[in-house]
Amino acid sequence: MNLRRPAALALTCAAALLALAGCGSAGPSTASSASSAAPSAPASTPAAVTADEHADRTTLKVAAGTTVTVELHSTYWSGATSTAPDVLAPAAGPATSPSPSCRPGGGCGTVATSFTARTPGTAHLTASRTTCGEALACGPQQRTYDVTVEVTG
What we know:
Elements: H1 4-23, H2 31-37, E1 48-51, E2 59-63, E3 67-72, E4 81-82, E5 88-98, E6 109-117, E7 121-128, E8 131-133, E9 136-137, E10 144-152
Parallel strand pairs: 1-3, 2-10
Antiparallel strand pairs: 3-6, 4-7, 5-6, 7-10, 8-9
């Protein structure tokens, strides 16, 4: 009876290895199979980009039709605005979502504003705040948010 267990275990392991080897198969490597393996997204599916505090003072490059959402993680932020609404038009928001577990005045939660990239050009998405915590004024580098968005055709 002890001899049957190792044999059954060996067969189970061999079957599992064969199954895994089949999953990792790359298939034919012709140019036609590579192009059909990764179809492009339909034109009706616009891209979406979300920028938060980490994107401050950076440049985003997006295609026309892309939705750009600024989501800042404090309810002390104003909703973001576009410096060129013809290039980057407001789409939704600002929407404030306070955190239910936060004490009043804590500023916990998010403020999100969405924009639609309309035409090629450059726009800045800006937001501001004066308070960085309950009774805590923001330092000079913490008061403003500015992301440059370059829209391509």
